[in-house]
Amino acid sequence: MKRNYSSQEYWDSRYTHEESYDWLHTYDDIKPFIESSKMEHQMRVLVPGCGNSELSNDLYNEGYTNITSIDYSSVVVDAMNKKYGHLKYEVGDVTNLSTYESGSFDLIIDKSTLDCLANVGEDTTVRYAEEMYRLLSNGGIFVVVSYSNFRSETLMRENTMWEVLSE
């Protein structure tokens, strides 16, 4: 099947046949960065475009308990809710999470969601950047794990309030 990242059918089909996949890095790879940010375990965490990654459960096992994981595909959300009943998985469009108030999350961890959205189009990445900025609390941290150094340019261009740190 052709990779059409904007198609819900693509993602539903993929997750029907795939049990688990961690884009780019595992939690252990990004753990030092998260720990260095001094985030408290009670902080409100969002994992947008969670897919079937083990990230949310790994965060839970590290002591984070207020985790919301959102994905476009109801197939993967249903599967993850069955697999990890102690976690909160929801179906949603990460470019429009209007059910959440501004400042709802202290830590947002994007593992290649921005990469997928960049393949859809610039207007989609703009909406996503604006929505993540809206959802982030004052002093909150948005961690973007990407295969492209150009993603930080998208964030800076769309909102001059971001402070972008690169590793």
UniProtKB/TrEMBL annotation:
Keywords linked to the UniProt accession? Methyltransferase, Transferase
Q: Which residues form the Methyltransferase domain?
A: 41-161
Q: Which terms does the UniProt entry file under GO BP?
A: methylation
Q: Which InterPro entries match?
A: Lys/N-term_MeTrsfase_sf, Methyltranfer_dom, SAM-dependent_MTases_sf
One Pfam family named in its UniProt record: Methyltransf_31
List the Gene Ontology MF annotations in alphabetical order: methyltransferase activity
**SUPFAM superfamilies from the xrefs?**
S-adenosyl-L-methionine-dependent methyltransferases
* Top-level taxon of the source organism: Eukaryota
Q: Which family does it belong to?
A: Belongs to the methyltransferase superfamily.
| Protein name stated in the entry | EF1a methyl transferase
Query: Per the UniProt entry, what species is this protein from, by scientific name?
Result: Acrasis kona
Taxonomic lineage per UniProt? Eukaryota, Discoba, Heterolobosea, Tetramitia, Eutetramitia
